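Chapter review: from sequence to fold.
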Amino acid sequence: MEDAWMKLPKEIKMTVMWDTYYMSVSAYSIYREELIDICEYCNVEQLNLFTIVDEAALIEWIDSVYHRTPETIFIDQIIY
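The token string follows.
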């Protein structure tokens, strides 16, 4: 996993959908340092090819930070 940290993107832009009833959404960017924190917090051992970190791990981390569970997230852009 040590080598994987070198290949992490600079930024992941995503849309967080909190609920579908009110269509409550937030735009959020995760930077390299946060990605490392997320991987450590969620015990990620393998990076996902398309989203870097699995959606379930991102949702778990967002819930731990905001104390609110998103219904879903959308990865909009990954910037290297």
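Two observations follow directly from the output. Helices lie at 32-41, 55-66. The two ends are 18 Å apart (CA to CA).
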